[in-house]
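Two proteins follow. First one:
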Amino acid sequence: MSSLRVCLPVIASLLFSAPCIAQTTGAPSTVVVKQGDVSVTLADVDAFAKSVPAKDRRGFFDNPNRIESLLTNLLLQKQLAAEARAAGIDKSPATQSQIELAIDTELAKIRMQQFRTDVKVPNLDELAREEYIAHKEKYLLPVTVTVKHVLISTKERSDEEAKALADKVAVEAKANPAGFDALVEKYSDDPSKADNHGVIVDAASGKYAPEFAQASGELMKPNEISPVVKTGFGYHVIELVKREEAKKRSFEEVKGEIAARLRSEFVDKQVKGHTDALRNQPMDANEALVASLRQRYADEATSPAGK
């Protein structure tokens, strides 16, 4: 383990000081890093990269810390595997079965990835247009409401005290809406006010307490003040800053979004059809052995060898 720690600064210095290279060069067998009797090659790194979703791969490798962690983990894995081979563990029938199962598992994952990639997706433009026409309501931009609020917390005062103070703030706000910012600074217990000064964007959405969202959504004109609203955080006085009504998006604006979803659904359907066909092939089972599996592992857990 100490040798691994010695290697870390070397890898880190290479990753953080190396000049930008447009593209990695070298054959798959090219050694990236070596430690003791084991080495990590480009083929090893490429094999790992395949386990990272393609959309996330660039971001993963654009991080020296992740690369350092990957290389050190691969080195450790190879060292442990080398120790296992030296001890003859790989020759054990039980280990061989585990290895075969691991190979089958990986091959199955790779085959499914290949199947999804190879699915021939038809032109979905017309289907996308039909979907848009049939469900235009799904492609509306919802009402967007921006508000400012004063929170009177019930954490360190009684409910009655909080309500009375909130009522007082509401009266002051309605008498002078232009002075709402001063009320936020003077009265609000919201800890985020130092950063947002009481401003809440998209306040009528499900991101916020239902009572707060409903009261915000009912405000129609800038500087309109809501009735006092109670949530789990305390009492709120809310002022409308801006309201943008729901807007219908054109087909051209949502065409890509719809097509991507239809494509995903089409591929998923093909995958399900393929795997269902494989699952539904006639099965010839050893019924006695299948029935014995429950007891097989129950016995193993209580046997001296299973402890």
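Second one, unrelated to the first:
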Amino acid sequence: MNLKYIDGSVTAPLGFKASGVNARIKYDKKDVAIIYSEAPATAAGVFTTNKVKAAPVVLSMEHLADGLAQAVVVNSGYANACTGADGMAIAREMAAATAEGLSIKPDDVIVASTGVIGQQIPMDRLVPGITQAIGELGVDGGDVAAEAIMTTDTIPKKAAVQFQLAGKTMTIGGIAKGSGMINPNMATMLSFVTSDASIAPAMLKKALKYAADRSFNMVTVDGDTSTNDSLVILANGLAGNLRIETEDENFTAFRNALLELCVILAKMIARDGEGATKFIEIKVRQAASFKDGQKVAMAIANSNLVKTAIFGEDANWGRIICAVGYSGVNIDPGKVDIYLGDEKVAAAGSGLSFSEDRTREILQDKEVNITINLHLGDVDVTAWTCDFSYDYVKINADYRT
């Protein structure tokens, strides 16, 4: 597959429009976004595993039961979580207002919210904001939509890729938000993906789950799983390819392109972690299975001791092997090798006489690579995180106020 990275986001695929406006929910920032497909689309989603699910998550899961959708409406500033029956009514009102403005069914609208938990959204501002956003929909609206879904993010997150499928050009685009409260499952906070590929709902759901497990579910910032995490994809078929109905080579090509896009967005989330000074990539080599490699990688990525050591530029590899040991995987400690960058710091479970100067130089970089070889199989798994700095505490100490 010849994959090409292109400039764009959710409006890069054929038939998609988007917008982002300031409805005064956050007063001085864009806070309402809409993504709209001109044609009905197959759709799928992956959502938070937190038992406390926000009203928009519950409603969107209902609306995706038939594998179809045509629009997404998102607000930032208020999570609409732990808001009782009123919160569910608000989520339904968001869907209804969007559907009315677009002349589609409310069941074909996906709803998402992000922000402070436990406070009601001011609907006297949000509904006019939805109307305004519908009026401003355009093929150039992907960037402002990415901006409107941000909370503590420092940068908008967007990407798009193209590839050829049976002589047709397929495009997949996406936006995401996430900076804190990031941990599987899901580890996206919010991400919305669009495509002009023609694919059956069951195949789209399978492709999305595969991509999520290897991208957003391999990201952590702080080990907290949000009430609102949502990853949704719409595929409207306007590229004109033969509909993907089975797990054939066309399905594999689409799935792999979707995975690549999701990895790009997931890494953006890790790079933009709250208070982060360093981006950390953790590679687990020769695991017995994907699940084992995932457990080991995420144990390391979620370790505050590892993350603070990287922040302090301390080559304390003992914290890494400690996390490997409590990951829940049946590892052989006497086989574990550990690298910081290209410097091997431990072999066969024991420390080496490595260069402190070289490891300090490696850990001073803005991007740090940690490699762990388990020598147990042939599966490689990668996770992404960031360091844990003083600023993370500052940002979260007064998030609500």
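SUMMARY FIELD: The longest strand covers residues 32-47. Residues 184-188 have pLDDT under 50 and may be disordered.
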